[in-house]
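User: Reviewer 2 asked us to show a designed sequence for the structure in our supplementary figure. I'm pasting the structure tokens here. Could you produce the per-position amino acids so we can include them in the response letter?
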């Protein structure tokens, strides 16, 4: 599941006439960086949610083999958006991925899938140690215990990639809600886990993140 519905307001003028996933980094749209990782991983079903300027993203993805989940008239946030997409995604755990970051290192989806244990995990979050997170300010989101259990607090930064079971989504009455509500339920049951990514990651949520990401990738348009 690719999250691509947001307004991208932190991008300023760059998203005045295009959705953030179409902002170009290192010669191609952000969503294509995510799709490269998805294809390399070998996902058998890929879904993207759309809301802001959806026609542009729909046209871009027309030949990409991506199913679409339209959110209208209101945007549903991450939790509501994931629940809305379930008829397209199907049953079972889902990998979700934000589309406003660029990676350098092993495929994050492979790294996460190799550690997934559905017998004890309801979600497994991929987090970035602060020294490996480029373009991201803040103290971090989660601390990771020796047994990989996650605890909220200053530590590693949530990367926007996770494997998550979806059954608890149906217990939330709101139509629009953050996945944080789901994580809180999992934390209460000691079933929220996290792992650190061994490579580098760049947050491209703001215009200055574009140059940072291109430098990380060693890319030049000259």
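Assistant: Here is a per-position design you can include in the supplement:
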């Amino acid at each position: 599941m690719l999250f691509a519905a947001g307004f991208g307001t932190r991008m300023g003028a760059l998203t005045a006439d295009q959705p953030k996933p179409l902002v170009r980094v290192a010669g191609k749209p952000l969503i294509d960086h995510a799709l490269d990782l998805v294809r390399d991983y070998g996902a058998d079903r890929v879904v993207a949610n759309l809301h802001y300027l959806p026609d542009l993203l729909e046209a871009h993805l027309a030949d990409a083999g991506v199913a679409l989940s339209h959110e209208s008239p209101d945007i549903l946030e991450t939790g509501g958006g994931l629940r809305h997409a379930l008829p397209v995604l199907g049953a079972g755990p889902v990998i979700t991925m934000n589309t406003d970051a660029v990676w350098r290192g092993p495929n994050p989806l492979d790294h996460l899938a190799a550690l997934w244990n559905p017998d004890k995990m309801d979600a497994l979050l991929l987090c970035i140690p602060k020294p490996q997170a480029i373009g991201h300010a803040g103290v971090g989101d989660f601390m990771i215990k020796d047994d990989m259990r996650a605890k909220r607090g200053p530590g590693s930064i949530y990367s926007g990639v996770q494997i998550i079971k979806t059954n608890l989504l149906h217990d939330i009455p709101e139509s629009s809600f953050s996945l944080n509500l789901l994580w809180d339920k999992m934390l209460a049951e000691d079933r929220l886990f996290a792992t650190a990514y061994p490579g580098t990651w760049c947050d491209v949520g703001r215009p200055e993140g574009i140059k940072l990401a291109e430098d990380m990738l060693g890319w030049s348009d000259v």
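For the response letter, you might also mention the following. The longest strand covers residues 157-164. Residues 2-214 form a domain with the Spore Coat Polysaccharide Biosynthesis Protein SpsA; Chain A fold (CATH 3.90.550.10).
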